[in-house]
Amino acid sequence: MITLYTWGTPNGRKISVMLEECGLEYRVQPIDITRGDQFQPAFVAISPNSKIPAIVDDQGPDGEPISLFESGAILIYLAAKTGKFLPASIRGKYEALEWLMFQMASIGPSFGQAHHFMRFAKEKVPYAIERFGGETRRLYGVMNARLEKVEYLAGEYGIADIATFPWVSRHEFHEVDLLLFPAVKRWFDAIAARPAVQRGMKVPG
Ligand SMILES: N[C@@H](CCC(=O)N[C@@H](CS)C(=O)NCC(=O)O)C(=O)O
User: Fold this and answer.
1) What residues flank ligand 1, with Cβ below 6 Å?
2) pTM flag (> 0.85)
């Protein structure tokens, strides 16, 4: 059995979507990051950076329990465990990892800062709104150019899309009109229609 430590945020939902897509059995342990559960010693032992998501898989690669933090590492682990959503060919695998890293290093951090300064910051900071809003729109341009050429970010549907979708689903938070990025909209609608994605996006409920 896999335990998923999560909260209702894009990074958490990457993993619930992946678990649903893989058809793996899992239980959900909510970590309420608004009241500081992420700093409890029992959670820090699993996730040393005090952030969701994290998992514990009772059946690790050697049959022993394994814990993992960082959503990109968890997605790669689950893909290796199931043989799903990461191409078997070496070239295909690196293409998928390239777009997964693009999500982890650029989309997540920039969209996250855009959300903070556009919606949650107590003080309006025009410089920060322009910096992270502008970078977010630029990243949509990168995705749109890619998705004009291929159906999914790494060609076939996989962990790069699963990592990116929950962030794009917050497009209202970062004030981006998907109609301005037609290839991203086509990709987004196709993924939103998948039943496993719909289930995963409701976790933790
Ligand atoms: N790079 C990490 C980022 C995780 C992350 O930022 N998680 C946020 C929620 S989306 C969190 O736990 N925040 C709690 C905090 O910062 O105290 C990953 O992808 O797993």
Assistant:
1) 9, 11, 33, 38, 50-53, 70-71, 108
2) yes
Q: Which residue has the tokens 């709104």?
A: 129
The closest-lying atom of ligand 1 relative to the alpha carbon of residue 53 is 20
Contacts of 177 (CB under 8 A, 6+ apart): 171
DSSP-derived 3-state class of residue 57: strand
How many angstroms is it from 109 CA to the middle of ligand 1? Answer: 10
* pLDDT tens digit sequence for 34-54: 999 999 999 999 999 999 999
- Distance (Å, rounded) from C-alpha 61 to C-alpha 142? 36
Atom of ligand 1 nearest to the CA of 31: 12
Strand partners, 4: 28, 55
pLDDT in tens, 69-78: 999 999 999 9
Instruction: Please name the residue whose Cα sits nearest to atom 19 of ligand 1.
Output: 71
